């Protein structure tokens, strides 16, 4: 299979879908002079539309186009710009299908750049996949490889619901194999990026690659990590997570976003609710602190959980004797679940 970067695979997915389906068009700031210039020359300027810097306006226009049968793809630039369109996103895109009793659909795709770690300061560095996952009616994907971003974007464009794709800027240069044939990656299905037996690491966005690097580091120490890439934040693939945890008995949730109400919080809550009796050690969350991102690159680098943080947590869990697994607690938990 040919090698592609994450950025090129994402662009290829959208261009291929535009050629496949005449209802698909792209809109956003400066898209006519970005990677879509060639497809604009092929399909026309009506399919590649520049927009003014007015997020509420062009998100509203996309929702209207979707209601009339089109399938718009929005290139939304920095994820923080979504806040300017919150009413259109939360009150209209997310709720219309439900409020119209299924008589209308909003098949839009919104791509947003998550540009943390680059010294872009607080106005441009949020990682809001958890925030938007709290909005019923939205699907949220966070790809981590060229293969996955192409397949997930294709699935998103064909989906009848609004899908938000958060692109981790740290992954844009990642190289990976991408099939030449048409394919999709199902929304709502996690991927086990590395099989292991001692600790389950459930990771989001760039934290997946930090977790894989930690797994390589710990392998020489006799600690085996299983790395689960959630890929989709909403809906979250709880079954894959729980199956892994019941095998390993230990879990670390790694999320570059702030910890409060994060994806990591949802993961550990799911494990505590449904797999408590299998745990050999306490659940662990590794997240950023609940503070705005500082401009200083040196300070910013301290915020996010990296390779060493994952490795240290895994070592601690595998040596932990603090978790009580008495037969009485196990039996009480099973009885409660049966009721």
Q: What is this structure's SSE topology?
A:
Elements: E1 3-5, H1 6-20, E2 24-28, H2 37-43, E3 48-50, H3 55-67, E4 71-78, H4 86-93, H5 96-99, E5 109-114, H6 129-133, E6 139-141, H7 146-158, E7 163-168, E8 175-177, E9 191-194, E10 199-203, H8 207-219, E11 225-229, E12 232-234, H9 238-248, E13 251-258, H10 263-274, E14 284-288, H11 297-300, H12 307-318, H13 327-338
Parallel strand pairs: 2-3, 2-4, 4-5, 5-7, 6-7, 10-11, 10-13, 13-14
Antiparallel strand pairs: 1-8, 6-12, 9-11
Helix pairs in contact: 1-7, 3-4, 8-12, 9-10
Description:
Helix content is 38%, strand content 20%. The protein has helices at 6-20, 37-43, 55-67, 86-93, 96-99, 129-133, 146-158, 207-219, 238-248, 263-274, 297-300, 307-318, 327-338, and strands at 3-5, 24-28, 48-50, 71-78, 109-114, 139-141, 163-168, 175-177, 191-194, 199-203, 225-229, 232-234, 251-258, 284-288. The strands form three sheets. It has a seven-stranded mixed sheet with strand order 3-2-4-5-7-6-12, sandwiched between helices. It has 13 helices and 14 strands. The chain is α/β, with parallel strands linked by helices and 339 residues long.
């Amino acid at each position: 299979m040919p090698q592609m970067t994450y950025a090129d695979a994402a662009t290829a997915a959208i261009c291929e879908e535009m050629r496949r389906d005449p209802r698909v068009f792209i809109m956003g700031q400066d898209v006519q002079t970005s990677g879509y210039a060639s497809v604009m020359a092929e399909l026309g300027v009506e399919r590649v539309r520049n927009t003014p810097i007015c997020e509420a306006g062009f998100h509203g226009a996309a929702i209207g186009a979707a209601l009339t049968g089109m399938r718009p793809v929005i290139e939304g630039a920095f994820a923080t710009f979504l806040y300017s369109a919150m009413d259109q996103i939360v009150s209209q895109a997310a709720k219309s299908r439900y409020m119209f009793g299924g008589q209308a659909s909003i098949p839009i795709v919104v791509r947003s750049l998550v540009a943390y770690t680059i010294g872009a300061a607080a106005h441009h560095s949020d990682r809001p996949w958890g925030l938007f996952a709290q909005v019923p009616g939205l699907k949220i994907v966070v790809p981590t490889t060229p293969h996955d971003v192409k397949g997930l974007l294709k699935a998103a464009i064909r989906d009848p619901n609004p899908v938000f794709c958060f692109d981790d800027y740290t992954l844009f240069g990642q190289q990976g194999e991408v099939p030449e044939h048409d394919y999709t990656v199902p929304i709502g299905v996690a991927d086990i990026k590395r099989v292991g037996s001692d600790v389950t690491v459930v990771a989001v966005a760039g934290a997946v690659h930090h977790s894989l690097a930690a797994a390589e580091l710990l392998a020489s120490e006799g600690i085996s990590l299983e790395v689960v890439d959630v890929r989709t934040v909403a809906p979250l693939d709880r079954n894959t997570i729980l199956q892994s945890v019941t095998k390993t008995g230990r879990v670390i949730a790694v999320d570059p976003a702030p910890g409060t109400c994060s994806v990591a919080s949802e993961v550990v809550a799911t494990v505590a609710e449904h797999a408590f009796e299998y745990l050999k050690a306490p659940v662990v969350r590794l997240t950023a602190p609940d503070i705005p991102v500082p401009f200083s690159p040196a300070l910013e680098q301290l915020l996010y959980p990296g390779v060493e943080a994952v490795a240290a947590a895994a070592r601690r869990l595998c040596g932990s004797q603090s978790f009580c697994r008495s037969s009485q607690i196990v039996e009480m938990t099973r009885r409660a679940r049966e009721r």
